[in-house]
Amino acid sequence: MKRKVEHPEPSARELSGPRYWRSLDELVETPAFQEQVAREFPAGADNLSGVDRRHFFKLMAASFALGGVGLATGCRRPESNILPYGKSVEGIIPGMPQYFATSFPLRNAAVPLLAETHQGRPTKLEGNPSYQPYGGSTSLVAQATVLDLYDPDRATTHTQNGSAITSAEVRDNLAAVHRAAKANGGAGLAILAESSSSPSRARLVKALKDQLPKAIWAEYDAINDEPPAAAAEAVFGKSVKPVYHLEKAKRIVSIDADFFHSASGSLGYTRDFAKG
User: Which of 36, 111, 124, 221 has the greatest count of CB atoms below 10 A from its CB?
Assistant: First the structure.
């Protein structure tokens, strides 16, 4: 039911007291002002003529309901539920990051890193300050590797000959290859991989060669920085790796060698060059 407000009759003070106005037109009560007020607030504007008020609001409510149904199916924001831990993880405080020491492997070296994680998810990589040659610095490539974990184009399924296969099928295929290779000591089996400085992978490669002595483990890189090591071995007669002290050099001649970016230990060389 519409509430009807009845204003009290003006008092004698209001009728005889000062008169307030909102504009000069209202003060002088020009015909143009009176016409504008009549157009803005015509007589009977507060009433609905021809249409019952209750029926009008029924139609409006139905229109809004139908519009909401259409929007809910076509423009609804996806919902996601955040579930709490069923059992609290030891050492994790919600809202407080955890740091883990790790490394970014290169061809014959690695960049020591500290990984910042939140509830088990890595969010930021920084250099490990405990490694003095790099002084806690890191490269832009190492920092950007954390984005690979959240890459929408990252592979989510295993494929074989262009067709998707399950994880169980992958294990079955590898088990079949292992059984066939173990029968003849690994003859005819060749594995091609990139070079790595990971001691864990070196241990696994050694275990593989012990089980399959006739198998071939080959490593190949599109960019090779082994010539300095080969030259040092030819000069000194043993496998050694040259370490340059660029902070002591007054002149540096570099021929097709990007020791600021692609060479092993480039972060340390960059710092030493800046010191010199």
Answer: 111
